[in-house]
Design a protein that fits this description.
Distance between the termini: 83 Å
Number of domains: 2
Number of helices: 16
CATH topology of the largest domain: Rossmann fold
Strand content: 15-25%
């Protein structure tokens, strides 16, 4: 506190930082402390956090520093890269070399030394390259019996309980542990069944209309070994995988070409984590980092499945908050995210933007005047204005850079990873082949029973 002269008397100036710091400590919402003359913001604990900033603002660096601070407290770190082909989250496992001179200099200024993070990479069994080696990856499949009401609503692009969805959910519940995708169609085709060469052309007297509707939405899985029986060894066991706190758990969708399957993978992961936490199977608190949100939940979606996905995401985000799961999201433009999804984030860190329409929309929501709008347009690199639903505007903060390496333009993760960890580059041709062989055996078994 410093003394300032006002008229004939001295008055004590209580700065915004100290007032808000006292409130934050009481609420245990955020932790702010000063290191080397820079405020360091540790977000989390009370609500979901959204970082907004155009390219070049340091948005990703701020997210990475935030997740680093959260990880230090003993929380599990799950990163879902939904859209990027370059595994940007994996750079934290690489050595911070001289090419990052500005980064190394900044760490010295922060009084910190470079540090690598352990990582575990996961990818759904879909379009995995078999012609080359890729960084060590855990290939996973979906447990067909875990396709619940939420996921079937997404697949059918409906929020209401239609007869087809009801029939499908019932059929999935009746599957035995060793029954999979093709057995599901047998459950759906009760009654007189003709034995024809193509299982998918079979006619059922009882429910041909419903069957054709279901087939239309599930046909994309016919030639992809994604939905597997309950007892299949490659099914994702989220409780087992998240049993390790030390590594960052990076779930990449970079090889998935079908946008609906890619979003299904993200939704499946969130749903698995939510259910495991609700059942008390995961004790630690969890932080989930969602890659560019505007691709996952756009405000003006092109496809119907994106509309229903946004509704389901809003529901999941609401439930996660009460389960000790914090979501950290990032986007270039606040207005490009679905309104329901963005309202699920109680804390917003707003970086520089020169998009006038974006400024107008944000200003109308939080009541920015001209000076505030001008300030946002002039924010510096790695500088953010902190907005909160509970505390209104909280001020402007500079973030420390993360202690690990960061993805830079023109740097390809796979090449750098191979150079630093040649023994961890693997070819998954045989593993992918084995999964597909098992899938085909299931089909042949069902055909043989006709």
């Amino acid at each position: 506190m410093k003394q300032i002269w006002r008229g004939n008397s001295w008055k004590r100036e209580e700065t915004i930082l100290k007032i808000k710091l006292w409130r934050l400590k009481r609420k245990k919402k955020m932790i702010i402390r000063e290191i080397a003359g820079i405020q360091k913001l540790q977000a989390g604990g009370g609500g979901h956090i959204l970082f907004v900033g155009q390219t070049g603002t340091g948005k990703t660096l701020a997210v990475e520093r935030t997740q680093e601070e959260e990880h230090k407290t003993g929380k599990l770190m799950v990163i879902i890269e939904n859209a990027k082909s370059n595994l940007e989250s994996g750079f934290c496992n690489l050595t911070l070399q001289e090419r990052y001179k500005y980064h190394l200099d900044k760490l010295k200024f922060q009084g910190e030394t470079p540090q690598k993070k352990d990582i575990k990479i996961y990818h759904l069994n879909n379009n995995i390259p078999t012609y080359k080696k890729i960084p060590e990856t855990k290939i996973w499949t979906m447990n067909i019996k875990h396709i619940d009401r939420l996921l079937t609503s997404y697949l059918f692009e409906e929020s209401s309980e239609s007869s087809s969805i009801s029939i499908l959910n019932t059929a999935i519940e009746r599957l035995k542990d060793n029954e999979g995708f093709f057995d599901l169609f047998m459950k759906l085709k009760k009654g007189d069944i003709k034995a024809e060469k193509d299982l998918f052309s079979l006619e059922s007297k009882a429910s041909s209309i419903n069957f054709n509707t279901i087939l239309n939405y599930l046909s994309r899985f016919r030639d992809q070994a994604i939905l597997m029986p309950n007892n299949y060894e490659k099914n994702l066991d989220i409780v087992k995988e998240l049993g390790e706190q030390k590594p960052y758990h990076i779930f990449s969708n970079r090889y998935i070409a079908d946008s609906k399957v890619r979003d299904l993978a993200t939704l499946y992961l969130l749903n698995e984590i939510r259910k495991a936490k609700a059942q008390g199977l995961i004790k630690r608190e969890i932080v989930i980092v969602l890659d560019e949100l505007k691709t996952l939940a756009p405000n003006n979606p092109l496809f119907n499945h994106q509309k229903i996905l946004s509704k389901l995401l809003t529901e999941i985000l609401s439930v996660c908050r009460s389960l000790g799961i914090t979501i950290i999201g990032a986007t270039q433009l606040y207005g490009e995210i679905d309104s329901g999804v963005r309202q699920s984030f109680s804390e917003v860190l707003l970086g520089r933007t020169t998009a006038l329409s974006e400024l107008k929309e944000i200003s109308s929501i939080v009541g920015f005047d001209y000076s505030m709008r001008q300030m946002i347009m002039e924010l510096e690199f790695n500088q953010f204005t902190f907005l909160s639903q509970e505390y209104n505007r909280m001020g402007t903060w500079h973030f420390h850079l993360p202690r690990h390496a960061h993805a830079e333009r023109n740097l390809v993760f796979d090449r750098l990873f191979e150079k630093e960890y040649p023994d961890k580059m693997k070819n998954y041709k045989d593993e992918v082949k084995d999964i597909m062989s098992n899938f085909k055996m299931q089909e042949e078994r069902v055909r043989g029973s006709l």
